[in-house]
């Protein structure tokens, strides 16, 4: 009987010691890289990291001119995907670009029953890999995540997408690059 109690005490001490070491290791790792673990149920986009460059989603969230895009990314369920390692090139339409869509089109796309259609449109703005503007060339075709390409044409030394869409700014992110564009790129 005494032997059984002693064995239980040793096992309990071992488990207790392991739990403390895991907590200490997790805390040390978290503190050393300036991040906090994701909240329960949160994906990569829920990780708090104030030291590293922001990922594509965090970059978009921090820019008020991209708030419509952020709503779309969240409604399409793409926040986790675009927060992951990538690398990705995202052509990010501004709020003004979304305002150019026909009346009611955006509200319709944001409805839960149109999640797949919204996902297709936003996937047409995403390329797997990093392509800086310096690497865009006249006549180039890029295969987007949705499976359909966009074309690049050089006009006055600047890349234009599908003949009419201009890149306003380019911002590097931790998991790729964001090219802010002046129109929504609709699949053909």
Automatic annotation (TrEMBL):
Indicate the secretion signal residues: 1-19
Keyword Manganese applies:
no
Keywords, A to Z, come to: Signal
Q: What InterPro entries would the database entry show?
A: Adhesion/Biosynth-related, FAS1_dom_sf, FAS1_domain
Q: Which domain of life is it from?
A: Bacteria
Name a GO CC annotation attached to this entry. Answer: extracellular space
Positions of the FAS1 domain: 53-185
Query: Which residues does the annotated region (Disordered) include?
Result: 26-47
**What is the name attached to this protein's record?**
Fasciclin
User: What organism is listed for this UniProt entry?
Assistant: Kaistella antarctica
